[in-house]
Specification:
Strand content: 5-15%
Number of helices: 8
Mean pLDDT: 80
CATH class of the largest domain: Alpha Beta
CATH architecture of the largest domain: 2-Layer Sandwich
Strand order of the largest sheet: 2-4-5-7-6
Radius of gyration: 36 Å
Shape: elongated
Number of domains: 3
Oligomer: single chain
Low-confidence stretches: 281-285
Order of helices and strands: HHHHEHHEEHEEHEEE
Length: 337
């Protein structure tokens, strides 16, 4: 027993203990601690010490105050935690609602984009097919209509290829299959993939890789590059060239594509990789699904790569694709399996 200790100090210490318990524990525990503190304060520190009797009114007020403040503090702490929990639940519900809204917007955008992109080539195909059945059509006119059919079928194939690529990315069904390959082979495969839009283009390739080969997935990398080449052809004059720079370090491949179009508005450099995005202020010269650059970013991400967009000082847009990859000279043996 400590009868000579200042009772005010003791009461404050008990109160501090109760408030700390209330802050870190449940309300039930805090109430029990409050009652224990009340009893201990009365039994050990108030006269007569060693009993629960109260000798004067001031001690009664002190006890009542200690108990009241303890219980009120416990209650307020409990309410604060409950509000915090409610706030977390509300924030999670808002996040879920926002995610649901974005998914709904994405689905609506997908339906709208596909509907729009399918309508034009299908309408053209119907018209051309009807014209081919017209009696008395000259051979030159027939070839012209067949050419239109071929063009629109090519558009449809590119659209469906993009849809398949996007679906593969969404379902994460693509995995990287690494092999040793020369960067020039990747560029050649990409140009062949985008041949429909690059057929009349001059392609300037600056290969600084020398005799080095890289350990990466050539199929995924060339497909990612092909979408960027298609984008460059769509948003630049038909007579202008497209340049491709190839550079290799000990652990990375960089492919830089530049067109000679109007370039990218500064405020839209990040948005160009959004699905179904078509830049404002630019009118594509050819068919565009709005998925190409988003697909490129997704394909590169499978290998831990990335793509950056910018503008060239002399005009035109510049896209740089980077893929982490081990490199070695052609003459060097590859690592044993």
């Amino acid at each position: 027993m400590i009868p000579d200790m200042n009772t005010t100090t003791v009461a404050l210490l008990f109160l501090l203990v109760v408030l700390v318990v209330a802050a870190v524990s449940t309300r039930t525990v805090a109430v029990i601690v409050s009652l224990v503190a009340f009893a201990c304060f009365n039994f050990f520190f108030l006269q007569p010490v060693g009993t629960f009797a109260i000798s004067n009114g001031q001690d009664l007020v002190a006890l009542a105050t200690l108990l009241s403040v303890s219980l009120i503090g416990s209650h307020l702490s409990h309410q604060s935690r409950e509000r915090a929990k409610a706030g977390l639940v509300l924030a999670q519900e808002r996040n879920d609602a926002e995610l649901a809204r974005r998914n709904a917007d994405a689905k609506a955008a997908l339906v709208a984009s596909i509907s729009h992109d399918l309508k034009t080539p299908l309408t053209a195909l119907m018209v051309s097919a009807g014209n081919l059945g017209t009696p008395g059509l000259s051979e030159e006119e027939r070839r012209e209509q067949l050419g239109l059919v071929q063009t629109e079928l090519t558009r449809l194939k590119r659209l469906f290829d993009s849809m398949i690529d996007m679906a593969s990315l969404e379902t994460r069904s693509l995995t990287a299959e690494l092999e040793w390959v020369h960067p020039a082979d990747i560029v050649e495969a990409a140009c062949q993939h985008a041949e429909a839009v690059l057929r009349s283009r001059e392609i300037d390739v600056c290969d600084q890789s020398g005799d080095q080969v890289l350990h990466l997935d050539p199929r995924i990398t060339s497909s990612a590059l092909a979408h960027v080449l298609e984008n460059a052809a769509m948003y630049s004059p038909a007579s202008s060239p497209v340049s491709i720079d190839i550079s290799v370090t000990h652990d990375r491949l960089a492919l830089t594509v530049r067109d000679h179009g109007p370039g990218l508005p500064p405020g839209e450099l990040d948005r160009v990789f959004d699905r179904f995005y078509r830049g404002s202020g630019t009118v594509p010269t050819q068919f565009s699904s709005g998925m190409g650059l988003a697909i490129t970013r997704g394909l590169l991400a499978i290998q831990g790569g990335r793509i950056r967009a910018g503008n060239h000082p002399d005009g035109g847009a510049v896209f740089t694709l980077e893929v982490p990859a081990a490199s070695r000279l052609v003459a060097e043996p590859g690592p044993e399996a």
